[in-house]
Write a structure and sequence with these properties.
9 helices; 10 strands; 254 residues; alpha/beta; four-stranded mixed beta sheet; globular
Length: 254
């Protein structure tokens, strides 16, 4: 009889552990969504932004460019055709250095520019001094192109950790991640890109798109994305605008 109760007690304990773990995980995921926590933060305040507050029907379309000569212009043409201003382009400075005319057009047509560093090498595989040098080299290029106040940073591949967060914050950068991934670089088809970008859409979202040459279908998807935004009465704004009035309300994950 004692053996029976011992086994039953062990099973009950195991069941409780599983239930509590599930509840904790559910709460964590809910908290990320409900309170719009940044994707990562330190104890003392530096943080990465992945989403703003939902109070306004505004989102930020963001485009990464790290290589290629063919897709950026068609995407800019589609944005202009659809009267979409204030998209945010995250550029690797090595690409920008080779395409000053496209950088000028991005700026001239009212879009925002952020950096992805110079060489587009993963920062998690680099030493702190190497990251500093990469960002300094990046800033030198952007300064030469008339872009002197770049403060938005999207680390290459979106990879970063606490140390990188602190280091880049001390250099005056805000790391910008994303809340919606269109997966356009995988070229899953225009319909799938539009669905990925707009089905879960709500105010405050930051949407990841690409304008490198790997994104073969992104330009064609833009009119449909814009149609979905208009149908939901959602306005596209720059990342800076999206987070400017809500940044102080974003809480740090402890």
């Amino acid at each position: 009889m004692n053996i029976f109760y011992t086994i039953r007690a062990k099973r009950l304990k195991q069941t409780m552990i599983i239930v509590l773990s599930a509840l904790f995980t559910s709460f964590f995921l809910y908290a990320q969504h409900a309170f719009h926590y940044p994707v990562f933060s330190t104890d003392k305040g530096p943080r990465a932004v992945y989403k703003a507050e939902e109070k306004d029907l505004e989102v930020a379309l963001t485009f990464n460019i790290s290589w290629g000569d063919e897709k950026a212009i068609p995407i800019l043409e589609k944005l202009k055709e659809q009267k979409i201003q204030h998209a945010t382009f995250f550029l690797s400075a090595s690409w920008a250095e080779r395409h000053p005319d496209i950088v000028e057009r991005i700026k001239k047509e009212g879009h925002e520019i952020g950096t992805m560093g110079y060489d587009y090498n993963s920062y998690t595989a680099m030493k702190p001094n190497e990251i500093r040098q990469d960002l300094a080299k990046s800033q030198k290029v952007f300064n030469s192109l008339g872009l002197k106040d770049i403060s938005l940073l999207r680390p290459p591949n979106g990879h970063f950790n606490k140390e990188i967060l602190k280091l880049t914050s001390n250099m005056g950068y805000t790391i910008v991640h994303w809340s919606i991934d269109s997966k356009d670089w995988t070229n899953p088809g225009v319909k799938e890109i539009v669905s990925n970008a707009t089905k879960p859409l709500e105010g405050g979202d930051i949407i990841l798109l690409h304008a490198s040459d790997s994104a073969q279908q992104t330009a064609e998807a833009i009119p449909y994305i814009q149609h979905s935004l208009q149908a939901k009465k959602i306005k596209n704004v720059s990342v800076s605008t999206l987070i400017s009035n809500t940044k102080s309300n974003i809480k740090d994950v402890k």
